[in-house]
Design brief:
By secondary structure, this protein is of the alpha+beta class. The chain is built from eight helices and seven strands, in the order αααβαββαββααββα. The protein binds adenosine-5'-diphosphate.
C-alpha cells in the first residue's frame, strides 16, 4: 500500500512536471507576444500624439505616453499569467493524482494478486513439508529402529512427496495459463481424439474406483490448443471420478450447439453445496462436503486451471449440482476462433 502511494505521488509529480513545462513555455511565449504588442501600441500612440501636438507648441500631457503605464500593463500580464499557471498547477495536481491512481490500480491489483498467490502457495507447500520433516526427525531420534519401520516411513513419505509433486505441477500449469496466451498453439482439432486421450489418462484412477466412463459424442472439430484442451477434460473427468462413489458412472457428452461446441461431464457423486458453488473456481478453494464423503485429497487448483483454459479459448464453464445427486460441468467453446469468424464475416459482408 505504501509502495502504491509512493508510486502514485511520483507519477503525479511527473504529470505535473510535464504539464507545467508546457504551460510555462506557453506563458513565456504569450508574455513575449503581449509585451511586444503593448510596446508597439505605446510607440504608435506616442507617434500619433506627437504628430497631433506638433502643430500646437505644447508638449503632450504625460498620461498619453507614460512608460510607467507600459510597465504596469506588463506587470499585470505577468500577474494574470502567474494566476493562470497557479490554477493549472492546482487543477492538474488534483487531476494528475486521480489519474495516477487509476493508471496504477490494475498494476497494484496484479501485484496484490501475485502476493496472495505466493502466500497461498507457500502455505500449501509448508504443511506437507513440515509433516515430512517432523516424521524424519522423530525417526532419527529413535534408537534401534527396525528396517520395516523405515520402509513404512519411506512409503508414507513417498505418498506425501507425490502430493507435493502434483501440487507443484498444478502451480506451474496455473502460472503458465495465467500468461496471456500461455504459450498455446491454436489449431483445428478433432474433439474425439482429445476426449480419447483424456479418458486414457483417467482410466487408471477410474479402474481403481470401479467407475465406468460413458462417452456420448457427436464427432466434430474444435479450434484450440490440443494440450490445454486435454488438460481441461482431464481436470473435469478427474474431479468427476474423484468425487464419485465406487462402482458408479461418469458421462462425458460432446454436442454441437448454436454458439459452438459443448463438452459436459456428469457424475453421480456427492454434489456441491449451494454456498460453495460461487467459489469452486477460485484458487485453493475446496468444498468440504465432497471431500469428507469421498475422503479425497486435492489442492483446489484444478477448476481454477480449467477456468483459465476455457477463458483462453474464449469459452465459458458452468456447473449444475445437487447435493447427493451429482454434478454436471459444462464447457461451451466456440467451434472456430472468434478472429477467424470475424474474418469470414468481413469477407462475405
Ligand atoms: P480439488 O483438487 O480440491 O479437486 P478443484 O479446483 O478441482 O480442486 O475443485 C474445487 C472443489 O470443488 C473441490 O474441492 C470439490 O469440493 C469441488 N468439486 C469439484 N468437482 C466436483 C465434483 N465433480 N463433484 C463434487 N464436488 C466437486
Amino acid at each position: 500500500m505504501i509502495m502504491f502511494q509512493k508510486a502514485r505521488i511520483k507519477l503525479t509529480a511527473w504529470y505535473l512536471l510535464i504539464i507545467m513545462v508546457v504551460s510555462l513555455t506557453f506563458s513565456l511565449i504569450i508574455y513575449r507576444v503581449l509585451a511586444s504588442e503593448v510596446e508597439r501600441f505605446s510607440r504608435i500612440q506616442r507617434f500619433r500624439i506627437e504628430r497631433n501636438f506638433s502643430g500646437i507648441s505644447i508638449t503632450p500631457p504625460p498620461q498619453f505616453s507614460d512608460p510607467d503605464l507600459v510597465n504596469e500593463t506588463k506587470q499585470r500580464i505577468i500577474v494574470a499569467l502567474m494566476m493562470i499557471n497557479g490554477s493549472i498547477m492546482l487543477f492538474s495536481g488534483i487531476f494528475g493524482y486521480v489519474l495516477a491512481g487509476q493508471t496504477l490500480k490494475p498494476i497494484a491489483d496484479m501485484v496484490d494478486e501475485q502476493n496472495r498467490f505466493i502466500s497461498d502457495a507457500s502455505h500449501e507447500l509448508k504443511t506437507p513439508l513440515t509433516s515430512l520433516k517432523s516424521a524424519f526427525e522423530v525417526f532419527l531420534r529413535g534408537k534401534n529402529q527396525h528396517i520395516s519401520e523405515a520402509k513404512i516411513l519411506i512409503t508414507e513419505s513417498l505418498a506425501e512427496t507425490n502430493k507435493l509433486q502434483s501440487l507443484s505441477e498444478s502451480l506451474l500449469s496455473l502460472t503458465q495459463y495465467q500468461k496471456t496466451h500461455g504459450g498455446t498453439f491454436h489449431e483445428t482439432l478433432a474433439l474425439r481424439e482429445i476426449i480419447q486421450t483424456a479418458v486414457k489418462k483417467i482410466s487408471p484412477l477410474a479402474k481403481l474406483k470401479q467407475v465406468s466412463i460413458v462417452r456420448k459424442e457427436t464427432t466434430s472439430s474444435i479450434y484450440g490448443d490440443k494440450y490445454s484442451l486435454i488438460d481441461l477434460v482431464v481436470i473435469l473427468l478427474d474431479n468427476a471420478v474423484k468425487y464419485s462413489p465406487k462402482k458408479s458412472s461418469v458421462t462425458i457428452r460432446t454436442q454441437k450447439t448454436k454458439s459452438g461446441i459443448s463438452i459436459s461431464v456428469t457424475d453421480r457423486g456427492a454434489g456441491i453445496a449451494k454456498k460453495d458453488l460461487p467459489h469452486i473456481f477460485d484458487r485453493f478453494y475446496r468444498a468440504d462436503e465432497a471431500r469428507s464423503q469421498t475422503g479425497t485429497h486435492g489442492y483446489g487448483l484444478g477448476l481454477s486451471i480449467a477456468k483459465k483454459i476455457v477463458s483462453l479459448h474464449k469459452g465459458t464453464i458452468t456447473v449444475q449440482s445437487a447435493i447427493g445427486k451429482g454434478s454436471t460441468f459444462t464447457v461451451q467453446l466456440p467451434e472456430k476462433h472468434p478472429d477467424i469468424l470475424q474474418a469470414a464475416f468481413r469477407k462475405t459482408g
